[in-house]
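Data deposition worksheet. Section B asks for the primary sequence of the deposited chain exactly as it was used as input, without tags or linkers unless they were present during the calculation. Section C holds the resulting structure in token form. Section D is free text for depositor observations; keep each observation to a single sentence. Incomplete worksheets are returned to the depositor.
Section A, Depositor: J.P.
Section B:
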Amino acid sequence: MKKIRGVIAGVSHIILSDILRRVAEQNLNMELINNIDDGDITSQVKRLDVDVVMTSFDSTELPKVCNDLLEEMPDVAVVGLVKDGRRLCICVDDVGPREIIDLIEMAVRGQFKRLE
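Section C:
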């Protein structure tokens, strides 16, 4: 199975960045490629050829960078910790009914596993 290639980009708090890094490092199916602190995140992500961008959002509104990434790279998923890191937002492009139902079922049934 191919490893998921990910980057951490534009995380506003060092604690949230550390959480994302730890999660990626503990996942045997994920390879953390780079850390992007600022600048043009979209162009940097394009050069790195990744599957997922891990970030943080300071509000519940979707940041512009998420829309930019999904517009220019629809195969890249964007995963963001919201506010203090207790909420997660997953942004994927071109989803169909099956993907929507799968995510709803996982959320409702509590199938998102917590790392201990």
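Section D:
The helical segments are 14-26, 41-48, 64-72, 97-108.
Residues 4-108 form a domain with the Rossmann fold fold (CATH 3.40.50.2300).
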